[in-house]
Amino acid sequence: MASFNRGIPSGSGESYQQNFGGIGTTGPETHPNIFEIGAFVQDEWRVRKELTLTLGVRYDLQSFEKPAVRNPDPQLAAAGIDTSFLKTDKNNFGPRLGLAWNPNAKTVVRAGYGLFYGRTPSIMVGTAHSNNGVNVISLRVSG
Q1: Which of 53, 91, 132, 133 has the highest CB neighbour number within 10 Å of its CB?
Q2: Distance from C-alpha of 27 to C-alpha of 23, rounded to nearest angstrom
């Protein structure tokens, strides 16, 4: 202990190695299969000579298959709730409304409204499944 307090190491060196995971592997791979589709319909209706309405609706669907590598939450899995993949959101209907009003020959007033849905980037899904706490590393500690 006296040597340790003076900053002088003593004793023989020790080595410890711990491998996590299978031999020759570097970690899980994931290739999430993603299916995406979108459809849009629109129509223009001239209400009066100076007023035009544009009506439309868009539907977006994005679906993720369950991957071979999963990242479940253990507590929720014990309760029978699977958190290893994203559920498919099937109600992404986005209405559109446009208005063009021409009060005189020199002026046009336009307005629009739409509800839009953004897609989930595939990198977020892939990362969630590959960073599942089972990555393989080799650790050597010497002293």
Answers
A1: 132
A2: 10
Q: Which of 1-5, 52-56, 132-136 has the lowest mean pLDDT?
A: 132-136
Amino acid of residue 44: E
Examine residue 49 and state whether it is found in any structural domain, yes or no: yes
Within-domain flag for 10? no
What's the domain range around 52? 33-125
Three-state SS string over 57-107 comes to EEEEEEEECCCCCCCCCHHHHHCCCCCCCCCCCCCCEEEEEEEEEEEECCE
- How many percent of the chain have pLDDT more than 90? 37
Structural domains of the chain, count: 1
CA distance 100 to 102: 7
pTM of the model: 0.58
Which tokens go with 74?
């253990």
21 in a structural domain: no
